[in-house]
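step: validate -> pass
step: tokenize input -> pass
step: predict -> running
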Amino acid sequence: MCGTDEYGTATETKALEEGLSCQEICDKYHAVHKAVYEWFGCSFDKFGRTPTRAQTEICQGLFQDLWQAGNINEQVMEQLYSEAAGKFLADRFVSGTCPKCGYEDARGDQCDKCGGLMNPTDLLNPRCKLTGTKPVIRSTKHLFLDLPKLSDKLQAYIDTTSQLGGWSANCVQVTSAWMRDGLKQRCITRDLKWGIPVPLEGYRDKVFYVWFDAPVGYISITANYTDQWQQWWQSPEDVELVQFMGKDNVPFHTVIFPASLLGSGRPWTMMKNISVTEYLNYEGGKFSKSRGTGELDDEVHGEDDNVKMVRGWSDQTGFGS
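step: predict -> pass
step: emit ->
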């Protein structure tokens, strides 16, 4: 199972850049990604996408389970607001200096240089990417996943599964650092239009944070492949789940998503084996899809020699290790 996760600020940003609607930009790049995988000789039982009815139903159901179990909290938080644009700014509509490593072009949700996760208000010298102006801080209400409350269950899962599943060393290192530093409550809602609506009174004008809904795509894409999806995703004794990803996505798959599944109280099939690549370097910097750094999408598509070059180059560089 694989596919494109299509909600969130990155989509809205790209749509604005290209003068397209969010649906149009997603249709365009889903086709591009699908063609590139086919060209590389990668095949899937199902290559799907997240804007589907199954994704909405399963994601909202997961949230409702967490809410009813007392694992979601309401909080008033300080958020950056663009007076020039007249709206609250979601993570990727903000950039600034990373408070952890000093990188001057960090995004509002994650630093591309050190990999640290943050809230937009943590940035030093923040600026609105829509207008170039300095945003102000205003109060707004959001929903948070109570990661500290779920920490013991999550640690037990990590301790057991990382050994049984032989998690790669870089994956263990990143996950251990998160747990060692102490988990904090994680905001799972955003002031956006393009996303899964929050099914709770008082929040119906908000959507779920993309990294709350995106991992649900593994489940919903399976549900769009077979109506027997629960035999795969709610059969932990019978199914072994293996995942492959880049280093920057580790915390979402070993901390936040497993915590969400554990906190729901349902017998979800949890990830057992995970293989994590290091960052792939490109001309002295890190490959970045959001920044357009590297040979991306259809830029390598169409020349037979290129696929050999990219495969060989990846092998030689160890994906930037």
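step: describe -> The longest strand covers residues 72-82.
step: cleanup -> pass
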